[in-house]
Sequence to fold (438 residues):
Amino acid sequence: MSVGAHVKEPAEKSNHHVDPDPELRKIVLQELGRIVASRFFKNSHRSQQFLDYIVNCKLEGRIEDLKERTIGTEVFQRPPDYLTGEDPVVRVQAGEVRRRLEQFYQAVTEQSAVRIELTAGSYVPHFHLRSSDPVVKPEIIKLPQLGLAAQVSRPGVLVLSVVSLSAVIALVAGVLWVKGHNNAEQISVARQFWAPALSSQQPVLICLAKPVLYRPSFELYREYSSTHPDSFNTEVERSNRVLPLDPQTKLVWSDMVPYSDYGVALGDVEAAVSISGLLGKLGKPTQVRIGDHYSYEDLHNSPSAVIGAFNNKWTMQITPGLHFRFVEEAGKYSIREDVPSGRVWTPKLNKAQQFEQDFAIVARLLDSNTGQFTIVAAGLTGGGTQAAGEFVSKPESLEKALRVLPTDWQNKNIEFVIQTNMTDSVAGPPTVAAYYTW
Fold:
């Protein structure tokens, strides 16, 4: 069996005991014992319980028992009707086990016959067998008339290698190694940046604002439709077309109606998706909170990523005492360095009155005034927030920025001012304009 080959999965719909191959069961249980006895699992009874349960379910073909609610009741003694959306114990523990497995296999020096993995988004473990095929020593046959050397690895098969290509092959191998090494280093830096959140038992809350938004009343749409037949008669039209009233049209306040289901900013959503995507790759569960659907108490209980600046009241409560802070004066927004003669950053407009440059604050707070690890990703406009989200979620951006910080930056609070140049309201790559650690 080749390296990385999957063991054949039991039938997904089967819920009865299946006797696995005795040899497979033996080596998997040996590996399980090695894992739970390691320093990464021995002090976490919950992680041991979780891993033991899912591995044995897989070995016995009880795939139907590898569901969130079933695991919650069987492993964590939750009642059968418990609300999984309000009690994420299984999702949180699955992320914790993934993280510990990754640490175990990064540190292990003695290779075993099988590797146990738990992929993100699933509670079904995978067993990867190492290759057991015998190695055949090739016989070298020289072909001087062609300038070639041939390797015979088994009857009838010749593997030709051109001596003159050896340098090219070595070069390609070197490039691939460097690329793989750099990617691994970048992921490692991202993991260090988010480490306090990854080590928490709670999911990361991704917190977006939902500003008050008004829409024209149905009466206003109907009045317009009376003079423009077949216009704005459906919600699809009302939600996707601008009501083209004459700028001189007089309105009364009742013509505008607050809509509670609308109002999340585009840049905030893009930042939230980027952050959630990275944390998913790192095996960390997330929960999205929007508008009034979360409170200061929520921020007090879980690590969080707070997105958006002036539209998010929690950002404005967390950042006032920081070295770089948001300022609003006479309807204009800026980021100001809170020292005498400190620097100031303001967004810039082009001739078409579109934003062509924006700035954002990215703060990594080990112990913010919420009492929890907090990331702030907030721009002066939506483009800045989008760039801030990209900055904290792209390992290559973090690796480049963090390399100039003190060597013990992992134990410090960090604040960046991020700059982005915009084209047609689309944010470009984020760059660091300033930073401060304490």
About this structure: The radius of gyration is 29 Å. The first strand starts at residue 114 and ends at 117.
